[in-house]
Amino acid sequence: MTTHDAPVRIAVVGTGNIAETCHLPSVRAQGGQAEVVAVTDVDRGRAEEFAARWNIPEVHDDLEGLLAAVRPDIVFVCTPPGTHREAVATCLDAGAWVWCEKPPTLSLAEYDALAGHEGEDGPYVSYVFQHRFGSAARALREQVRTGALGRPLVGICHTLWYRDDAYFDVPWRGKWETEGGGPTMGHGIHQMDLMLSIMGDWTEVRADMGTLARDVETEDISMAVVKFANGAMVSMVNSLLSPRETSHLRFDFTDATVEVNHLYGYGNDDWQWTPAPHRADATPADLGAPAENESSSHEAQLRLLLRDFRAGRRPAASGDDGRRVMALIAALYQSATTGRPVTPALLTPDNLYYHAMSGRPAASPAKEPTRV
């Protein structure tokens, strides 16, 4: 294990696009606080090419061998969703912290099972929800915490993206068993996590979904109305059918509207802070807009993860903090399928949607889903 002053030793599992474009650059941006020491992939040749491009000293044929030989501090799991549970459990059992790509797991049951592989003082698994770590989102969270903008009332959380038919040629995409869901699970999860990180606990979901244009098992569009413990109501839309792509979040408080329009990441310029008429003279800075301008990114989340690792404390986007969006998604799918509202109290182990977002666990006997 690393000493306090030495770079945190990172291993990477999976050398696809997300590792290439997001994870490795995020390590390089940490100013020597971390280094990648080993990599593994099911395709050995691809792993060797990846290691050569990034000057990684060791390539291994399997995860268990890598963990035994290298004993990394943190493992980045950059593999398809269906492999997350086994990879994360293996790393935690070996004593390594984990930073895992979204979605965390395929179900709430899998998510909760992984908690049993964490120790009271670590190792911990954190999940990639980078949009909550930009400076503007951090500032807005603080304004909500202190009540500086008044009471939260109305919200919008729309992930309107476009994926053509060819996108689903990848065998694991568009299937409940291997992806866990459609745009709700695999795409909108980022914006929904950002919304939840700011607005707090949800209390009820009413939803619908459809498969309108893509040849997939899952939905390609979902819509929901979500109620929050603070009394606010939020509209959520997740689409892969929208040619003019945008990620749009809006927060209406009694004293201001705060909104962000971006696609796959934002800076401060993507946010707008608008005072209510009774505060017409308030500037964005008065409303809490930050002077610091840190974009939402893997780099921003990793910086805080390394800090938490060195301090030995549970990081953000892990444990109950990472679970909240998974529970919301399970409730959304259940509501959309049954046509009834779903509350957090219904998502118990005797509920089919606790075990699979489709409500149809492969190894479970057929029975009626929990009625709500």
Beta strands, count: 13
Strand content: 15-25%
The largest β sheet comes out as: 7 strands, mixed
Tell me the number of helical segments per DSSP (H or I, 4 or more residues long). Answer: 13
Name the CATH superfamily assignment of the largest domain.
Answer: Dihydrodipicolinate Reductase, domain 2
CATH domain fold name of the largest domain: Dihydrodipicolinate Reductase, domain 2
Low-confidence stretches: 364-372
Give the name of the CATH architecture of the largest domain. Answer: 2-Layer Sandwich
CATH C-level label of the largest domain? Alpha Beta
Classify the secondary structure makeup into a structural class.
alpha/beta
How would you summarize this macromolecular structure in one to three sentences?
The protein has two domains: 8-130 and 300-314, NAD(P)-binding Rossmann-like Domain (Rossmann fold); 132-293, Dihydrodipicolinate Reductase, domain 2 (2-Layer Sandwich). Helix content is 33%, strand content 23%.
Keywords:
372 residues, alpha/beta, Rossmann fold, Dihydrodipicolinate Reductase, domain 2, 2 domains, 6-stranded parallel β-sheet, globular
If you had to describe this structure to a student in words, what would you say it looks like?
- By secondary structure, this protein is α/β, with parallel strands linked by helices.
- It folds into two domains: 8-130 and 300-314, Rossmann fold; 132-293, Dihydrodipicolinate Reductase, domain 2.
- 33% of the residues lie in helices and 23% in strands.
- It is built from 13 helices and 13 strands.
- It has helices at 17-28, 44-54, 63-70, 84-93, 108-115, 135-146, 176-179, 183-186, 189-199, 284-287, 298-311, 319-338, 352-355, and strands spanning 8-13, 34-40, 58-60, 74-77, 97-100, 125-127, 152-162, 202-210, 221-228, 233-239, 241-253, 256-262, 271-275.
- The strands form two sheets. It has a seven-stranded mixed β-sheet. It has a six-stranded parallel β-sheet with strand order 3-2-1-4-5-6, with helices on both faces.
- Strand 2, helix 2 and strand 3 form a beta-alpha-beta unit.
- Mean pLDDT is 95; it is low at 364-372.
